[in-house]
Amino acid sequence: MSEVQTVENMVSIKIDGIEYKAKEGEYILNAARANDVFIPAICYLTRCSPTLACRLCLVEADGKQVYSCNARVKEGMEITVDTPAILEERRAMMEVYDVNHPLQCGVCDQSGECELQNYTLELQVDSQSYSIPDTKRETKNWSSVLHYDAGLCIVCERCTTVCKDMIGDAAIKTTKRGGASLDKGLKGSMPKDAYSMWNKLQKSIIAPSNGTEHTNCSDCGECVAVCPVGALVSRDFQYTTNAWDLKKIPATCAHCSSGCQIYYETKPASIEDRTQKIFRISNEWNYVSLCGAGRFGYDFENRVATKDEEAFAKAIEAFNKAKVIHFNSTITNEEALMLQTLKEKKGIKLINREARAFQRFLSFYNKASGNSLYTLDFKQVMASDFVMSVGSSLRNDNPNARYAFNNVQKMNKGAGLYFHPVGDMLVPTFGKNIETFAHKVGHEEAALLMIIKLFADQDKLPSSVKDQLETDFVALLGGDTAKFEKSLTKMLKKKESFALMVGEDLYFHPKAENLAKLIAVIETSSSVRVAMIPPKTNSLGVALICDLDDSADGYTIGYNETGDFRLSALGDGDLDIPAMNQQEGTLTNMHKRVTPTNVALEYHGYTLNDIMREVVSAPKYTIGWTPHLPTDKGFQAVEFDSLPNGYTNAGVENRGYLLSTTSTDAEEVSVDKFEESIALEGDIAYRCNPQRQFNDFTDKAHQIFEEFALYASPARAEALGKKVEIEFESGSLTLDVIVDDRMEGDIVAVPDFKSSANIYELFGESRYQTVTIKEV
Ligand code: SF4
Ligand code: SF4
Ligand code: FES
Question: Could you tell me which of 702, 593, 602 has the C-alpha nearest to residue 657?
Answer without folding.
Answer: 593
